[in-house]
Every structure is written in C-alpha cells, then in structure tokens.
Amino acid sequence: MQRVWLRVALAALAGLASLVVCSGVLVAIVLLFSNTTDWFVIMGSSSGPSPIFWVGLVVLIIVAAAGLSLPARALGAKWDHVTNTALLSALGFCAFMVFVVVSFLNPLVGVPLALMAIVATPLIGSLFAIREDYHHTVGLVRATVIGAVAIYCASLLATLLAIWLARVEEGWSYSLVPVIVASSSWVVVPAIVAALRPD
C-alpha cells in the first residue's frame, strides 16, 4: 500500500512539474513574440518575425517536450516510449494554444475547446504512457475518463462563474479560474493512472 501511495505522489508531482514547465514556456513564447516581432506584421507588413524568435521558439518547444515527458517517466514508461508520449502530449498542448487564439475571435467556440485540450493532454498522455508496458483494465480507463470529464465539466461551470463575476466586478483575473480548474487534470489524471495501473 505504501508503494502505491508513493507511486501516486510521484505521478502527481510529475504532472505538476509538467504543468509548471509548460506554463512557463507559454509565457516565454508570448514575451519572445512581443519582444522580437514587429507589430506591423499583424497589420499586413511584409517583414516576419526575426530569426531570434524562431531559434527561441525551437528551444522553448524542446523544453516543453522535456516537461511533457515527466509524467510518462513517473508512470514507468520506457525511454523509447517516453518520446512518443511526449510528442502526443505536445500535440494536445499545441491544440490548446491554437484554441486560445480562436477564443479571442469566438469565445463561445474557442473557450470550451481550449479547456478540452488542457484536460485531454494529460488524459491521452497518461493512458498512452502505460500502453506498451501494461494492459489497460476497464476500471483504469473508466476511472481516468470519468475523472477527466468531471474536471472538464467543473471548468465549464467555472467559466460561467467567471463570466458572472466579470459582470459584477471589474477584473480580467476571473478568466483564469476556468484554466486553473482545467489544469488540475495535469495532477489528478496521472495520479489516477498511477493508482490503478496494474503491477
């Protein structure tokens, strides 16, 4: 029993570390873009982002991929499988970034999809991480999916709450509440998989 709790704690901490790394990468990409790109590009200027931006973007993507590999390692995936899991998780993270941009244009479509991408990233990554080394049991898949769906529904309710609070009081910080709720899946989902993973 103590070994199971240690495994769960390790998976949860790896998920938290992955979330922190990817959040830092997202902030760094925004800062890099704002400091190295001419804003007239958006208005139709022919000049694109500087080479420094592209080099920095590649470095940050490598850092994000390394962060996304942490839960897979904590769940016991082998080295060659860790790479595949990190790439799959990176696709989910990239989908989140795309849907964040879409949410600025159409919040009714972009926000639910962005929250879904946040929750789906650890769900798919965690289940894929143990696919090669362990057989998926019905209970493991069911509990993991139920946990992810519950967090997603909670994030949608948090979105409605944030909209209501924004109307009552001034402040953009309420828009972070749904993202924080959805991001909790990065800790909870790997922990569920670690707890129910067959030995």
List descriptors.
mainly alpha; 199 residues; 80% helix
Q: Would you mind describing this structure in some detail?
A:
The protein has one domain. The chain has 199 residues and is mainly alpha-helical. The protein has helices at 2-36, 51-68, 70-74, 79-105, 107-129, 138-168, 176-183, 185-196.
Count of distinct strands: 0
Give the N-terminus to C-terminus distance in angstroms.
12 Å
Number of domains: 1
Q: In what range is the share of β-strand residues?
A: under 5%
Please identify the structural class as seen in this structure.
mainly alpha
User: Portion of residues in helices?
Assistant: over 70%
Structural Rg? 18 Å
List segments where confidence is low: pLDDT < 50 over at least 5 consecutive residues: none
Most strands sheet: none
Q: Which term fits the overall shape?
A: globular
* H-E order: HHHHHHHH
Q: How large is the count of helical segments?
A: 8
Mean pLDDT: 84
List the helices and strands and how they pair.
Blueprint (H helix, E strand, L loop, with lengths): L1 H35 L14 H18 L1 H5 L4 H27 L1 H23 L8 H31 L7 H8 L1 H12 L3
Helix pairs in contact: 1-2, 1-8, 2-4, 4-5, 5-6, 5-7, 5-8, 6-7, 6-8
